[in-house]
Amino acid sequence: MVRMKEIAHSYFWWPGLDAAIEDKVKSCSACQKMRNMPQLAPLYPWDFPEEPWQRVHIDYAGPLEDRMFLVVVDAHSKWPEVTVMKSTSAERTIEELRSIFSRFGLPTQLVSDNGPQLVSEEFRSFMEANGIQHIKSAPYHPATNGLAERFVQTMKQTLKSSQGNGSLNRRLNTFLLTYRNTPHATTKVAPASAMMKRQLCTRLDLLKPPKTKQVVQTQQMERWRKAKDRSFIAGERVLARNYCKGPKWIPATVVAQTGPVSYTVHTPENIIWRRNVDQLLPGTNLREDSCQVTNQDQLLETYHDYEPSPEHPLQQPTNVESAPDSPEPARVPTQGTVAPQSGHTPSPLRLRDNVTVDSPVRRHYPVRERRSPDRLTI
User: Which helix (H) or strand (E) holds 112?
Assistant: First the structure.
């Protein structure tokens, strides 16, 4: 039409010449039959589903390497499912869709083109029986099912470029793993993350240490950063944490270690406490009498732990009267003597063959004085 106007303008002109030429072309049936395609209309996008697997798009791709491929793409997550098909009949299509739906559930809507197997009565009955709304695109208008069509184009390009690098199934599985783990251009999220809420593990993940190992390493670093090893030996003077009335720390003596970080300590009140190493402080500057263990059980334990040797024989105290050839064993002196009650003679406690201890032993700490409360009477 543009050329007709240019030729007419080169020979003559009158008002309304261009309109007359346009009317002439529009009235020509032969010209109308050979017209080009009109300008494309603006794309009308599909509504984005709120959840995965609400709407799926399916299509057939191929033939490629003598195989056909059934493609199913989720509209929300862009997760693809591809099945290699030897037959594209309605029966085989329904069978494969049942297998896919058994893993992901039934969708609400299914979008497809007008392939013969997808518009058959058998396929229509399958959709109605499962409550799936079947939406068919306009004939010969693949843009309506553009999600599946675009994935088919990407899959074909990848499989063609990877020929000779393994079998068809191997190359297809490698492509699917990479595609599902790659952020999509539309959602900016990997299909695996949108569909399964996690990234699929690949060989690239071997470059990063596992999270459990990172957690253990962090815990160990935190432990060594704040912790300080402390250990005590039996008989060592320490300060023990006091959770009763009185000072916060009281002097005590370590009796034994009951665990890797647990100790039993003896307090001046003749009480045995069990404390964690975090509840003990070194007490090297304490006075001897503040941590001295004087009860009879501790004294017995001290003599039980002592084993006389030929080089260092047990010395007999000077204030103990004993005949040189007396068969009686030696007695350990005490700082005070408690008079026995009338009619009762304390028997000595035998420790070793040549050591005994008189019982009882005088206490070296003050006796608690108990007073009745002075109550107010009105």
Answer: strand 109-112
